User: Fold this.
Amino acid sequence: MEQVQTAAEALVRLEQPFASKDVKWLVAATSKDGRKGRVTPYADPRAYTDRLNLVFTASGWTREYTVQTLAPITRLKNDKPIQSGKVLVTCVVSIPSVGAHSGCGEQWAEDPNALTSAEAQAFKRACSNFGLGRYLYRFGEMWVDIDEFKRPREFPALPSWALPENERRNASTANTNGKSSGNGTASVQKGPLDASVTGKIEGCRRALGQMLYINILGSVSKVRSARDIPNQHLQLEVLKWMESGVRGMARVRSVASEIPETQFFEILDGLGVRSLDQIPKFGVLAKLVEQMNEAQSKMPAA
Assistant:
């Protein structure tokens, strides 16, 4: 096994998608007529364990569980009140070279597999804090036809950003040769994640302010963290908007140093902005830049 040189390298390897054979589908809800089911992708805890062992070796990480029970709890089941309890599990995953994270899981006590399910949930949630398996949370709603036993008649195809690099290359080759991958998105989702681009995006936070930074992330890539952007294509798109915002903020600050302070705050008030670190969205910044440029143009020549 190759030696992991840095924590950053390790995290990049952890964040890579699982092999498609390790991804399964759960019917999380059904339509009123029982013909459609909303499916959610997930991976068995063993896939998480295998990835941790691959990156750090079996002796390079640990996990620790704490189990609690709550009872009695009255809840409705099949529209009838029943006395039940809950199994609560906390899992702490520790990696000496990286850090430690915890996750929680819970299950109703009458479930014969309550402890196993809660442990798996807690373990996977702890792993997601390191980036492992986090991409599985990025899928939107997907509905498929189901049979009388509420089983999918056909599983969705994984988009290219949810495939490991080797499978992504194969899918790309198939598309190039004129073959359909069946997911309709391979031509849009491009390239693996680039840690350096993630760093550049995160470096824009201070100049933009938290509100505008989060707004750009959400508007362009539908996430709240730069590490959650699903592919390089979106990474570069987000970075483009971020850098444009940084240039806009620099322009505003430059003009603000030249015009009267009272005029500057009047412009902010007119846009409903309390301060530069609380600009809510890119459109407001664009209007602010426009009005600042106009104010500067009306200043008397020195």
Remarks:
- The two ends are 68 Å apart (CA to CA).
